[in-house]
Amino acid sequence: MTMNLAMVTIDCAEPRELAKFWTKALNAEVAQDHDGQFMMLTWAGGPALALQQVPEEHTGKNRVHLDMHTDDREGEVNRLVDAGATIVDEQTLPGIAWTVLADPAGNVFCVGQQD
After folding, report:
1. Contact partners, residue 63, CB within 8 Å, separation at least 6
2. What one-character DSSP code corresponds to residue 64?
3. What SS3 state is found at 51?
4. Nearest CA to 38 among 13, 4, 15, 8?
5. How far apart are CA 52 and CA 38, in angstroms?
6. Which of 9, 14, 17, 12 is nearest to 66 (CA)?
7. Sheet with 48-53, side-by-side order of all strands
8. pTM exceeds 0.90
9. d(Cα 29, Cα 95) in Å, to the nearest integer?
10. Which PROSITE patterns match (predicted)?
11. Domains (ranges, CATH) in the chain?
């Protein structure tokens, strides 16, 4: 039996509003919109990203988060901040550095670059 990662789902209060950020961030398009309660975004080179409406507010740290990698971390971080993200933290380990950001709904994700 084989299994592949097909989609990552983010719970949020307003999927359509959050889709505005993630379509810009990932150069994605809305592939499905189910009355604004569940949306699926797709783009070349990755699994789908779903935004699912939930009634409760986001509290605390994400248990799972997205990690993106790039050859131009500073440029991508600036682009994402311009699109609505906020910088949460900067981290480095030997051979890699990453910026922790939050999307407009407070979901944390990272943008990393290897040395």
Report:
1. none
2. S
3. strand
4. 15
5. 5
6. 9
7. 7-12, 48-53, 38-42, 29-34
8. yes
9. 33
10. VOC
11. 1-57 (3.30.720.120), 64-115 (3.10.180.10)
Q: Are the C-beta atoms of residues 40 and 47 closer than 8 Å to each other?
A: no
Helix, coil or strand: residue 81? helix
What single DSSP character describes residue 113? E
What phi and psi, each to the nearest 5 degrees, are found at residue 20?
-60, -40
List, run by run, the mean pLDDT of 10-residue segments along the chain (115 residues).
91 97 97 97 93 92 91 97 98 97 96 95
Burial 81-114 (b: 16+ CB within 10 A, else e): eeebbeeeeeeeeeeebbbbbbbbbebbbbbbbe
Cα separation, 37 vs 83, in Å, equals 22
